[in-house]
Each structure stands twice: as structure tokens, then as C-alpha cells.
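Input.
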Amino acid sequence: MDDPKKLQRAALKRDPNFKWLLRGGVISMLGDQLTMIALPWLVLKLTGDTLALGFVIALMSIPRAVFILIGGAVVDRYSPKRVLMLSKYANAALLGLLTLLVLHNQPTLTFSLSASLSLTIDLNAHLTLMIIYVLAFCIGLAQAFGIPSGTSIMPQAIAAEHLQAANGVLMGLRQVSMLIGPLMAAGLLAMSGDSGGVVADARGLAFAFGFDCFSFLLSAWTLSKVGPLTAPAQAEAPQSVLRSVGAGLMMVWNDVPLRLCFIYWGTVSLFIGGSMQVAIPVLASEKLHGASALGILMAANGAGMLFGMAGAAVLGARLRFASFGTVLLVADAIAGFLVMPLGAVHAPWQACALMLALGLLSGYMQINVFTWIQRRVPPHMMGRAMSIFMFIFMGLAPLSAAVTGWVLTMISLSQLFLGGGIILVVFATLAYLLTPIRSISSNTPQPQ
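Output.
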């Protein structure tokens, strides 16, 4: 008798919608990674100012966090596919402009070859920087609509029984792109003549932005080939965007399992998530010999996530020893115990082992969490539910990260890791003992 899991995977591979999503997703993910490396490098080479770099990152992050809830409401009103295609075209236009800007202002990217010669930033460079600020803001705004539509389209294109495997494949490919993309970006920066802080030619940077522009156009074309799985559900009565956002918040609040999980994730993100984003680079800088160690740590974490996602996609329920809620809380408690000793490590291999284990847990749970939400939330509310879920991490974690720098002026790094791990274990334990999260099932039917 054939293995039902193998039959499901074979059926997924034959699914035309999955093939089109996969083709467009792969190239789009690589393009995103190129821009994530090239844009900060462009700003640093244009200005040499870390404050300007921070301002560009903030201009991308703030509109994404502020407007993502509105983006979710728009997705539910006009369909994920429609909004996602428009966001891809908007991103393609913005990156096309950025490509032309880099090529046109190539001389402003030239750094001196001699210590006696200094770089002069003229008015044209200042104008270029202002344009980059505007483009960064617009890219963040486009992401506020692209993220909820991208995370909402899967249930409308893939059969419910294939969701976990499909999520596993696509998220796994995202992890692979996070390993390959920076290497591609490094090669392109080498094309631009980089050596010891000197940029003699902007072709590499322009190619990175141009490739991402092309990837958005190509993924928009492949997205156009994705057909609806079922007939579109009857649309809600027209209402204002703000009322639509409110309806999404009420849907999550009235669904007790969703409400409990979202509150729990928000609490963990606020107290723990952002602090780890700051603490890991500090660990690499202070104890593990700098930037190269940071790259190794992130690679170990990324590899762990990839294996965890693969396990969730391939083995699925066979790895689950209890209900969805119990597995969630147990995984967080184990993660807390793994975080505690991070500040006490003295060798990169020790930190890598811990980061690899944390990545395994994170990758496995990401697939299960996304699949649980997609199966539980009604299709006409999926955009708003996913936007609220993403806001928890994009809106709350940065607050935690901002406070962590101040906290580190009063306590040691090892105390921060120890305290963060203890807090995570305590939160998971209290949630298990005092809330019904532990009894939440993975196959809970969608509320009517």
C-alpha cells in the first residue's frame, strides 16, 4: 500500500498552482536578498554615515509596520492575488528607478584611492540620498500590502491537505535564498570594484537592483497563471478600510484560540523577540571575534531553520507528540533553555550548536503556525488575520530591540541571555498552566 504522505507530496508536485507559485517565489526571494545587501551598501558608500543607514532602514520599517493592518483589510476586499500583483508592479517600478539612479549617479559612488584624497559629497549626492529616502519609504509601504497578500494567497490556491507541505517547501526555499543571496550579492559587489572600501564602478549595485526589479516582474507574470482553487466567496458588504481593520481585530478577538495565541506571541515578541536581534550581533562582536562569527552564527541558525522546515513539511504530524498548543509551548520552553547559556559561550562552535538547535525549533514551528492559521481563518478574513500576525513581529519586536540597547548599559550580555531565556520559559509555563492554549488542536475547524 502506498504511503498517503508520499501520495500527497506527489499530488502537490503535479499541482499547477503550486508550480507557478514556486517558480515565481524562487527568483523573487533571491532578488529580495540582493536588495537587502545592496541597499545598505549603497547608502554607506554614498555617505559613509551609519546614521543615514539607520534612517533608511527606519523609513522602510515604519510604513510597513503602520500600514500592514490596512494592507490586510485591502487584501480581503480585493483578493490576495490582485493586491500581490499590484505590490509586485510597484516594487518593480521603485527598484527600476533605483537602478537608473545608481547608474546615473555613478561618479558619486567613487571613493578615493589615497588617504590624502578625501571624498566630497556634492549637492548631487545629497539629492541622490533624498531620493533614496523616498524610495525606501515607498518600498516599505509596498511591503505593507505585499506581505499580507503573499501570506494569504496559499489557502486560495492550494488544497487544504497540501498546505503544510506547500508552506514547508516555500519557506524552506526562503531559507536557502537567505544563504545563497548574500553570496550572490558579494559577487556583484566584487563586480563593482570593491576593495578596501573603494567603489570604482556601480555596475554591480545596479545589477543587484535590476535583478530584483526583474524578479518582481517575472513573479508577477507567474502569479497571473495561478487560478482560484474554488469559486470566490461572497464578498462582505462594502465598508471603510478602518471598519474592515476593526472587523479583522474583532474576528481574532472573538475566536478564543486565535486570541490566546496572538496575545501569547505578542507578549513573547515584545519581551524577547527584539532583544535577541540585538544580543546576537553583540555576542559575535564581544566574544566571538566579530563579523565573521556573526555570519557563521546566522548561517547555523538558517541551516537549522531549513532542516526544521523540511521536517515539518515531510514528516508533518508524525513529529507531533501532542496537541498544537502543547507543542507550541514546549518548543518555546526548550528554546528558553537554549537561550540561557548563549551569553556564557567562549567558542564559536558552542554558539553555533545552540543557534542550530534554536533554528530547528523555529523552522519546525513556523510551518505549523502558518498552516494552523491558514486552516483556521475563513478565506475572506485571511488577509487581515495574517496582517495582525505579522504586525506582532514587525511592530512589537522593534520596540523590544530599541529598549535592549539601553538595558545592556546596565546589565551584562550573559545576564541578558540568561534573563531572556528564563522569561521565555516562565511565559511558556504560565501559558500552559493558566490558559487553554495547551488544548488547542491543529485541526480546529474554521469558525463560521
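The chain has two domains: 1-227, 249-442.
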